[in-house]
Structures are given as structure tokens and as C-alpha cells.
Amino acid sequence: MDLVIASRGDITRSQVKKLIDDGRVIVEDFKSGQTDIPVKAKNKVRRSDKIILSLPAYGNEELAPEHMELDILFEDDHVIFVNKPAGLVVYPAVGHSSGTLMNALRYHCNKCLASIGGPLRPGVIHRLDKDTSGVMVVAKTDKAYYHLQKQFKERTISRRYLALIYGKMKGDSGVIDAVIGRSESDRKKMSTRTRRGKEAVTFWKTLEIFSSAFTGPGGASLIEAKLKTGRTHQIRVHLSSAGHPVLGDRVYGRKTTIGGENVPRQMLHAESLGIVHPYSGDWLEQAAPPPQDMANLLETLRKM
Q: Same structural domain for residues 18 and 84?
């Protein structure tokens, strides 16, 4: 039961178990007509089951406006580009009911956000991990939302990331083509070793090599990564599967210390994002330099 529910939405297996324990999951059986069937996480699911979840409300499912500083790269009546800092969650979810990017955008834009995407993430077509920094776009109108959604689906957008990784890749550039799906051993993680993976393609290019960065072999590298697809944690999973995880990635890599200092987060930055403007039809691209923590680490590596 918990596996089925977790695989159908943006929710972890442990979060599903808590919903079950709190009595927020019920089952109806179409064949027998039974309703309110007692549910346990380990229950087997039948094809005739209708599973109903009652999710806890966040402020009656309304996105509360919160005044926060935003780095706005571009804004008009249709779209808004922001440079999301590392450590900021994109929208409210379990464990993060406030203090998110969308709370700040609700305050900044007032009611001028698309009505589509859900009450807690209006206008959101894509997102960045909490500890990944960089450029995001949010739709301010429904027409812009549908237009951008189509561009993401048809893969006509342009996304460029910068990543600091362990070691150096083989060659100057290449492609990682490996399916990605939920890890079968840890539902909080994604993996290339899965029976239910979806196509995932990452193009990479080495920009700089720091051969003496560590006492261990391999050093470190700065690479550019471009996405053909947009799977959850795609760059982090692909680089880890290639044996070169992102520095500071505690989920898919390991704890990192450079110059006696811990690397506090995964060193991954969405440097640029390009779209076709949903109204003018013009190409619109915005970029943001690496944040200070990543810039400082680059400087340290260059001096070692």
C-alpha cells in the first residue's frame, strides 16, 4: 500500500506511513462495495481498490504571502524569472509549510500568478532541489502556464547547470544516457538501477580541472551539464552513477571537506534558462552567476 501511494505522487514512503497511521488513508472496494476498509502500510493493493488520501491542509490550502528578499532577473505581465538561493524550498509541502519561494512570490505578485499548478504552487512548471541554486521561471497567467508546460514537455527549452564534482570525467565532453526511477532500496532516493525507470539524458562538458584539490586521487572538476530530460535529481543521480558525484551531495555522494572546511551543500547551480516567450514568441533567456559559497569554493580550489 505505501509503495503504491508513494510511486503515484511527490511523497515519500515514510510520509505515506504517517498518513496511514493518522487515519488519513481509506480504501473502497468496487467489487464488494465495502467502504472505509482498514488500511495498513503493508496491505496488498488490488486492482479493484480505490485509495483515498486526506492530506493535511496548509492554511486551508491557501498560499500565504510572506515578505522575503527575491533576486528577480526578469518580470512582465506573463512570466517571472528568479534566482533561487540554496537552502530555499520552492513550495510548501510536508515539513515545509511556510518560508518557501512561492510564499515570497505570492507576496511579491499578490494575486497575479497563474491559477493552475495547485493552490500551493500556482504557476510552477518546474522546480529546483532545496540545496540547488539558480534560475527558475514561474507563470503569471494560465496561458503562459500552458505554453511553458508544452515547452518543457517537448524539450524545447534550454537549461545549463554548473556542477563541482569529484574527480574528472573521461574525455572533454559526453552524454550520460541512463533511465532514472525510485530506488528500490530507499524510496527517498532516485536511482539508475530500477525496474521502473524513465528516460533520462544529460549532456556534460568539462570546464576546469583541479588536480590537487584532495589528498585522495582524482581531484575535482567544474563541469557544465545540459538536460534533455528533467527527471527528479537527474544531474546528481547521473553523475553519482558515473562515479563522479557532486561535491557536498550527502544523498548521492559523501561528506566533503576542502581546506579544513565542510562543503555545506551540493555544489550544483542552474546557471541559465531559456524559453520562447508565451506571448511575444521571442527567445527569452536569463542567467545568474554562481552564488557566493560556490564562488568561494572555486577560488579555494584554484589556489590549492
A: no
d(CA 295, CA 267): 10
Full residue range of the structural domain in which residue 229 is found: 157-277+297-304
**One domain for residues 181 and 71:** no
- Give me the residue label for grid cell 570546464: 207
Whether 285 is in a domain gets the answer no
Active site residue 129: yes
Q: Which three cell numbers stand for residue 18?
A: 504517517
Q: How far apart are CA 248 and CA 38, in angstroms?
A: 43
Say how many domains are in the chain.
3
Q: Could you say which of 129, 131, 249, 293 is catalytic?
A: 129
Per-residue pLDDT of the chain in tens (304 residues, 90 and over written 9):
888 887 766 566 777 887 888 788 888 876 666 666 778 888 888 888 888 887 665 444 689 999 999 999 999 999 999 999 999 999 998 767 889 999 999 999 988 999 888 889 999 999 999 999 999 999 999 999 999 999 999 999 999 999 999 999 999 999 999 999 988 888 789 999 988 889 999 999 999 999 765 545 568 999 999 999 999 999 999 999 999 999 999 999 987 887 677 888 999 999 999 999 999 999 999 999 999 999 999 998 888 8
The model's pTM:
0.79
C-alpha closest to that of 223 among 254, 269, 263:
269
Domain C-terminal end among 154, 184, 215:
154
- Cβ(221)–Cβ(298) below 8 Å: no
- How much of the chain is helix, strand and coil, in % rounded to 5? 20, 30, 50
Cα–Cα distance for residue pair 25/40, rounded to 1 Å: 9
The DSSP letter of residue 86 is T
